[in-house]
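Run log, item B.
One chain of 307 residues. Sequence copied directly from the ordering sheet:
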Amino acid sequence: MSTQIGATPDELLLQPALTSAKETLAVNELHRDLQAKLEQEINTALERVEDPGINEIAQTILRDIVGLFGRLSLIESNLHELDTLLENLSLLEIVQFETRSLIDFINTKAMRTAGLSEKLHEVLDGISYSITHDVRRIFERELVGVLRKQSTPVVYGKIVHAHGLLTNCLQQSAITLLQVLNPNLDSLALFNDSEVRLRQSLVLCRDLSSLMRVVRQAEAEGDPDILRKVVGCILEFRDGSMQYLMYRDWRAYERLALDVITSIENNGDAKVLLHQLACFLEVLYGHVKMRAVLRDMFPSSGEADDD
């Protein structure tokens, strides 16, 4: 049953974001198409896995991800109706439980499976890390407090943001696992989200370039004001555009960022650490420019499906 947060004039601010019933049906149709494609790719990938134990854990993880996409699709459909915001908060609580269960399965069983290759172990570790990262960010930092007492636009915005983070994370997880099982997978065709990936990649290029300039400036000048600015920019990138990187790069960025911030806050000599961070950012920037969705904008960079 739909539960209304409480009609207020603020709801008028959200009217441009809401869509008609026809568009809601279109969302459901897109999910059915995505589910069919996923099921096909999962079956194709699993057919290539001869080891029964590895086949079982891969199947479990991928089926759980498909189920989570179903939850997220329902949330997306509900976003077109203001009186379902509380239902979406309840759905997100279910997503939180199911993602934590998936993380627990990966950590306690999947990664301990006999015969697991080093590559697959690395992929599972990355999936666990990335999902854990976003689940903590969403449910321990953003969806906290008594949301039901906040204004409708605030609640709506938090739900949209959480939906986007989780969708992006699960897409990366599914693609990475499927590709290690089936290297012939066409990830761009699977999710058919090239426009979204283009926008994300452009934002990522912009923010990486901006962060590099600030880090290089701090490395060269070492002025206290610039160093404080670096700390703010590092945290802003971590909480924003970092989500558009491949999750295998998240941990390295956070480790370098933490070293730089710790050194600056303790009044240490951060010049060497700033240089390391700047070099790492340049490598990331080069990888992002090689994404397939940017091939026409950076033709000399080569081609790559992912960064």
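Observations after the first pass:
- The radius of gyration is 21 Å.
- The chain is about 70% helix and 0% strand.
Flagged for discussion on Thursday.
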